[in-house]
Write a structure and sequence with these properties.
The protein is built from four helices and seven strands. The protein is an alpha/beta fold. It has a single domain, classed as P-loop containing nucleotide triphosphate hydrolases (Rossmann fold). The radius of gyration is 14 Å and the shape is globular. The model has no long low-confidence stretch (mean pLDDT 93).
């Protein structure tokens, strides 16, 4: 599924809509260059879960947890991971009761069974194309629900 967005606000509205549809264990992988809009998307997503705290990029911590929304929310940013990451215990997040959003997920070595890959492409200063792809039954059902809402 492909969405063309023309402003950061539009990206956040889409992210918030998706957040209203997610269920425990949903995992979103965000892929795209520096400045593509991954954190911007994540902020809209957190708002859609009802999280009012500021979302900061989890720079040195890699993972930030937010417990004040409709579901526990885990924001991961793997940008600063150097190489070996198979002992981080990320399955505990991916298979838990919360929802995970992973920036720079292309750096992961082990993938969960069910996840949505969102690829960000910059087309102009404020133009972005978001390509959403489901791997696994839960993610497939999630994207179907989103498509229904959008149509
Ligand atoms: N349609 C759009 N969607 C998302 N961000 C946009 C859009 N148009 C412009 N922007 C701007 O692009 C920048 C995206 O920065 P952001 O921090 O979200 O990127 P990122 O992908 O998280 O980068 P990094 O890899 O450094 O973490 C922001 O300044 C945002 O306002
Ligand atoms: Mg970012």
């Amino acid at each position: 599924m492909e969405y063309q967005l023309t402003s950061p606000e539009e990206t956040q509205v889409l992210a918030a809509k998706l957040a209203q549809l997610v269920t425990p264990g949903t995992v979103l992988f965000l892929i795209g260059d520096l400045g593509a809009g991954k954190t911007t998307f994540t902020k809209g997503f957190a708002l859609g879960l009802g999280i009012k705290q500021m979302i900061k990029s989890p720079s040195y911590t890699i993972i930030r947890e937010y417990e004040t929304g409709r579901l526990p929310f885990y924001h991961l940013d793997l940008y600063r991971l150097a190489g070996n990451n198979d002992d981080l215990g990320l399955e505990e997040y991916f298979e838990g009761e919360g929802v995970s959003v992973v920036e720079w997920a292309n750096l992961l070595e082990e993938l969960p069974r069910d996840y949505v890959t969102i690829t960000f492409t910059k087309t102009s200063l404020e133009g972005r194309i978001l390509n959403l792809k489901a791997t696994g039954p839960n993610s497939t059902a999630l994207l179907k629900k989103l498509a229904k809402e959008e149509s």
